[in-house]
Structures are given as C-alpha cells and as structure tokens.
Specification:
The complex is a heterodimer of chains A (384) and B (167). Chain A contains five helices and 15 strands. With 384 residues, chain A is an alpha+beta fold. In chain A, strand 11 and strand 12 form a beta hairpin. In chain B, helix 1 packs antiparallel against helix 2, helix 1 packs parallel to helix 3 and helix 2 packs across helix 3. Chain B starts with 23 loop residues before the first helix and ends with a helix. Classes of the chains: A alpha+beta (384), B mainly alpha (167). At the A-B interface, helix 1 and helix 2 of A face helix 1, helix 2, helix 4, helix 5 and helix 7 of B.
Chain lengths: 384, 167
C-alpha cells in the first residue's frame, strides 16, 4: 500500500498536526527582530565582501609584487590590540598568518599588524564611533637604510561595521617604518587607500560605508603614469568618477623632503586633495593647511572650472582652487557660499553625488590581475 | 506496486499558493504566522520556531532582489533551518521536542512528543505531507531525495507514530 495514499488515518493525522500547529504563537515584536537580523546580516555580508576584495587583490598580486594572505576573518580580529596614537601598531595573535607568501627578492617584512582605529580626535566635535580593524603591512625594500627605494606599505581597512564615519586614521603617519618610508596610506574620506606600485600603474582602493549603514561602497581606479603629461591618468575607472590623478612634486620644503600634490578630480568636481611630504624623518603626510586628523571632505561645487581641494579641521572648510591658468585661490567656508560649506558635516558623509561605485569584486579582481611587478627603474621614473 | 500519488486528491488543504507578495512587508504579513507554525511542528518549541523563521525572513530580505519567488524561497529556508536545528540538537543529545507551554493542549503535546521520536527527515516528510498536503514529488524536491525515498520515509514515520500514539 502506498503510504501516501489518503486514508482516514491520514486525515486524522493531518487534523492533529493542524491543531498542534495552531497553538504556535507569534511575538508582537517579530517584525522588529527580523529587521535587527537583517541589519546584522548586512553587516556581516559587508565584512565578507571587504575581506573578499582584499583577499582577491592579495591573491592576484602574489604573481607580481606581493601577496598578502588574509586568513583571519575580520570578525575574529582581536579587539584588544588598540593602538595609541603615535605608536607602532601592536601585534596581535595570528599575525604570523599574514606574512606575505611572496615578495620580490630582498624585500623583508618590516611589520604586519592589525589594530583598531582609535577614536577620532575630539576636535571634530563628533562622538567616538566604532573602531575599525585596519590591516597594515609594511615591506622594506632591498638595500641599506637610506636607500631611495620605496618601502611599500599596504594599508587596508575593512568596512565591516556599520559606522565608519571617522575612519581617517589620525595616527597613520606616525606609523612610519623609518627614514625610507614612502607612506602611501593617505586617508581618504571614510576609507583607506591601498596602493600598489605597479610599474607605471597605481591602484587606489577604498571601501567605505555610505549613508545607509548596510552599504559598503568602494571606489577603485587604476592609474597609468603618463610621462608626457607628468600625471596619472585613469585607466580603470568604474563609475567614471575620476578623470585624473595629478601627482606632481612640489619644491621640497627641506633638503630631504619632497611634497607631492595629489588631486583626484572629475570634470567639475574636486574630490580629494592631499599634499604629501615624503622623505622626512617620519615619512609623514601633511595636508595642505596643516589640517589635523587628515579629515578630508569632498564638496560638490557644481560646475566649478578648476580643481578644488577641500579640507576641514572640523570647524571650517578650506578650499583651494587650482584654476586652469595655474593660479591658486584659497577660500574657506566663511567666504564660500553656505550651500557648499554646509555640505561638510561631522558625520563624515559625502554628498550623495559622491557615492562611490558599489563594490564589485569582479572589478577589483580585474584590476588586481593587471598588476605587474615594479622594478627599481620604474620606481625611479615615478615623480619622487 | 505503489501508485503515483500526484493524481490523488489532497488529504489536506493544498499548501499556500507559491505566488509571493510583491513586497517584503507583504510577505511578512502573509507568511510569518504560517512559517512559525511549520517550524513549530518541526522543532516543537515555539520560541525556537520563531527564531528560525525570523532568521529565514532575514535571509529572504538579503536575497530579495535575486530570488524569483521569495515565498517559495522562504518556505525552503524555514524548512531547512528547522531541519538543521533538529539535526544539531540531535547531535548534542538534546533532541528537539515539545517544550509545551501552559496553553498547549495535552493531545497536541502527545503528538509533538511523538514527532520527536522521528528522525529529522521522517519528521519533515510527515509535516510536508500531512500538514502541508504536498505531493510526493514536491516533498522529494524539498528534501532532496528520490520520490521512492519519500514513500519510505512516510511509511516508517507512520509506523513509528503508531507505536506511540493512536492515529
């Protein structure tokens, strides 16, 4: 007999099952509890995407410059290794798993560390937010101390938490690896730059959380060095956000330091402007105007004809306009229309029009696959 | 020779239509209670059932844009999470069974207790067949087993149930 053929016994069992099921009750706050679970799932997914992006880049670069294995899910990062501003990042358990699987000959790991961002300086007026795990690895090149060869530094923050409003790392520059350091970790808005010198190419990566806390947005662009134009031109530019990255040396401030000006710009909008001083005793970054905390904001100035740098000390917004004719105009929020200044806030959020391209792992991988090892000659050709 | 059951008249009302509400809110309003009841039969614990269903809803929400039929996806998610829960507790020697609240009728306690005696797959087969009125083919697809296995599961489950309760 087919046990599934209906019988009166089956009918009775069905009735009893329905009666039993009917006694199940539902909580009045079930909807709210689901919403909470949704948020948690999004956060976890965001962390996984960020980690996957890091792993993808690292894995592919194994064939080129350096590989960084990310064996430790960010959610398992120890939280106790908080770094005090101005100190070297504390090692953490498991860091030995982060050693590179491949390095160019002669390169040695100077440090590999995971830390948590300290609270953002109170000067911003913003409340202390969730600290974030940041993975940094610094590689020392061949040669004796003092060599002009670069120390490669990869600094990647994971956007695993809801609020990275205050991601910029106030003590980042203090983590210099030494006098050879080329500190290529300028903090960007709510993100980190991950730089890979790639022959003439440069890859910028930042992840960030946007308006909605569940979103992790990323921007990545590959820049090819254009010797004729003395600048990096966007080669891989999903979203079309960036058109140029100008990186020109400025007159050195001291005998052993050189300042770069890096400006990301789109057609009519300036995004980020950072003056970078390289080669001094601490390899520090310095923002034009000496803004503390490296807090940068992009401001949509709508149709402005020049390249504009934007910085803020948490109180006022300073704007530097580089006009096409080469002249410079410095403005601050007091002189600028309130509609512009008003876009700077302490939340760290960019205006919606600056929302970066959503993370697309495929794009990350595609860029990473384009990476090639850099040699000394190539590096030397870069605008130090 | 066992006959195909697909042409048999349903012994219980047909399962809810698979067409999903167009919004998550609609899905919640339409299916939450039903899914809790399904999970309750599987795990025998109201609080656990709600937990499982809420997690399933969160999963559906996460994949809302990618899922053609959120209602069907939700059903599978609830069923699978409930089965996993039964297996997990079984491994821990803490079989999921009725944790009757004061409001639960004695006869229902008896039934839930009897369900606890079933294996996870037998329990799922019984619930899907006799509570949801699903066909052999549907159950086979949901449980990822062959149709013949469904017959076997139900047959053995009924034998086991007869040992402990009067059907």
């Amino acid at each position: 007999v087919n046990p599934l053929t209906p019988t009166s016994e089956h009918d009775r069992l069905a009735d009893r099952l329905r009666a039993a099921a009917g006694e199940a009750t539902t909580s009045p706050d079930a909807r709210r509890r689901i919403e909470r679970r949704v948020v948690l799932r999004r956060r976890r997914a965001a962390g996984r995407r960020a980690a996957a992006a890091v792993a993808a880049v690292a894995a592919v670069t194994a064939a080129g410059v350096v590989a960084v294995r990310w064996d430790q899910p960010p959610t398992e990062v120890r939280t106790g290794a908080t770094t005090e501003p101005g100190t070297t990042a504390a090692p953490f358990p498991g860091s030995e798993r982060l050693v590179p699987s491949y390095l160019p000959e002669g390169y040695k790991v100077l440090s590999a560390s995971m830390d948590r961002l300290p609270p953002f300086p109170a000067a911003t007026g913003a409340p202390t937010r969730t600290v974030m795990p940041v993975y940094e690895q610094v590689f020392r090149p061949p040669g004796p101390p003092g060599t002009t060869a670069p120390v490669m530094r990869i600094s990647i923050g994971l956007a695993a938490e809801a609020d990275q409003s205050h991601w910029p790392h106030p003590d980042g520059p203090a983590k210099s690896a030494g006098p050879w350091s080329v500190n290529l970790t300028p903090p960007s808005e709510n993100g980190r730059w991950a730089w890979f010198e790639d022959g003439p190419r440069l890859v910028l990566l930042t992840t960030r959380s946007a308006v909605r806390d569940e979103d992790v947005l990323a921007f990545i662009a590959a820049m090819r060095w254009d010797p004729a134009g003395s600048r990096y031109a966007a080669e891989h530019n999903p979203g079309g956000l960036v058109e140029t990255l100008v990186m020109r040396p400025h007159p050195p401030r001291t005998a052993d330091s050189v300042t770069f000006r890096m400006t990301l710009s789109s057609t009519s909008r300036a995004l980020i402007h950072v003056d970078t001083r390289i080669g001094d005793e601490d390899g520090a970054l310095e923002a034009r105007g000496g803004v503390a905390g490296y807090e940068y904001r992009a401001v949509d100035i709508g149709g402005f004809p020049g390249v504009v740098s934007v910085s803020t000390d948490g109180t006022d917004v300073s704007l530097t306009v580089a006009w096409p004719d080469g002249s410079i105009t410095d403005l601050d929020s007091r002189a600028f229309p309130a509609s512009v200044a008003g876009q700077r806030d302490n939340s760290g959020m960019l205006p919606p029009e600056f929302m970066f391209t959503r993370v697309v792992e495929d794009e990350l991988i595609a860029v990473a696959r384009s990476l090639r090892p850099v040699d000394q000659a190539t590096w030397d050709a870069l605008p130090h | 020779m066992l006959s195909d059951i697909n042409s048999d008249p349903p012994v219980v009302p047909a399962p809810p239509a698979l067409a999903s509400p167009v919004t998550f809110d609609g899905l919640y309003a339409d299916r939450y209670g039903a899914m809790v009841r399904l999970a309750y039969l599987m795990v025998g614990d109201n609080a656990v059932a709600e937990e499982l269903v809420q997690d399933a809803f969160a999963r559906v929400h996460q994949r809302w844009a990618k899922v053609d039929n959120p209602g069907a996806y939700l059903h599978v998610a609830v069923l699978n999470t409930a089965r996993n829960e039964v297996r997990r507790r079984s491994r821990r020697q803490r079989p999921v069974g009725p944790q009757p609240d004061a409001h639960v009728d004695e006869a229902n306690v008896e039934l839930l207790d009897a369900l606890r005696a079933l294996s996870e797959r037998q329990r799922a087969a019984v619930v899907l067949r006799f509570y949801e009125g699903r066909s052999e083919a549907e159950i086979a697809e949901l449980l990822h087993v062959r149709p013949g296995t469904v017959k076997s599961l139900v047959h053995r489950a009924l034998d086991r149930l007869r040992e402990v309760i009067e059907l």
